[in-house]
Design brief:
Length: 136
């Protein structure tokens, strides 16, 4: 009798666990960077700094930690604003206080309908987009 109650409960928990919750660590690499130009448009940067800065980065969506393997400051702690799941992006900011407007906003998307995980990072004057892979 107890097994008939426990088995459906376990199945419900397994089915309700989203891909984003199960995959908390992502290796992400930038594919494109756009800068705010003086005329109010978006343009290609003259240097590849942000493209390189956001390549081969580990993003831990459970803790908000961003790791850069070849950086003088390899570990950054971002404030998690929203946990990701099959329908909502993981969202984090570089601001430790939630009552301040963020300078940088990071989103990781791993929706059920997405062909692969991807990210977008919006800074004060630039946008970086790229793809990710779940790290096991």
């Amino acid at each position: 009798m107890k097994m008939s109650i426990i088995l459906p409960a376990v199945l419900l928990v397994v089915l309700c666990t989203s891909r984003a919750d199960a995959q908390a660590l992502y290796r992400c690499s930038a594919k494109q960077v756009m800068n705010f130009e003086d005329d109010g448009t978006l343009g290609q940067p003259k240097k590849d700094f942000f493209l390189n800065w956001w390549t081969n980065v580990l993003i831990d969506t459970a803790s908000g930690v961003v790791r850069r393997p070849n950086s003088p400051q390899p570990l950054e702690r971002w404030t998690v604003l929203q946990r990701g799941n099959d329908e909502y992006d993981f969202v984090a900011t570089d601001q430790p206080q939630r009552d301040q407007a963020p300078n940088d906003l990071l989103r990781v998307r791993n929706w059920r309908t997405s062909p692969q995980p991807m990210f977008i990072m919006m800074g004060l004057s630039f946008v970086v987009t790229g793809t990710c892979a779940a790290v096991k």
